[in-house]
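Blinded run. Sample ID left blank on purpose so nobody reads anything into the name before looking at the predicted structure. Input follows.
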Amino acid sequence: MANFPDWSDTFLSTAELAHACAMGYDWLYHRLSHDQRDLIRGAIVELGLKQGLVEYRDSDRHGNSPPWSTVTGNWNFVGNAGMAAGALAIGDEEPEVAEEVLRSSLDSVAIAAAEFAPDGAWPEGMGYWDTPCAIGCPTSGPLSPRSAQASACPTRPASVRRDTSRST
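Blinded prediction complete.
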């Protein structure tokens, strides 16, 4: 995936590829060579996060087709989950990009999360209710200042990489 020339078929695929590469990068970090790390980190930043920043910075550039970052549907959760996962994976190595993506992601996902009010129903129906819950809640775990016990999400993933240092 990191060798693909671009991830831009749709932003949904961009976000999902960023998410997948971020998970692999995080989980396998200490098993990857320096060249592999550089390749994957570069793909996450260039093919994923920087593409997301274009959307966050210019949310009305699509004319009458709103971008994923401003819609209230499940694409908002998928896009922001991929961007947040990518930013968290490379944050200690690319802090400026990661910080802007995370701030933008939190602002953007709030647009769609408001659709759960007042009773937890989802306007796209039960078939798509699972998407924001399955993707949005686990992604919000590392970003939430609340404890796992206080979380509104049913489950919260534990960090796989216990050693947060990036030394070899």
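Unblinding after everyone has recorded impressions. The helical segments are 11-28, 34-57, 74-90, 95-113, 126-140.
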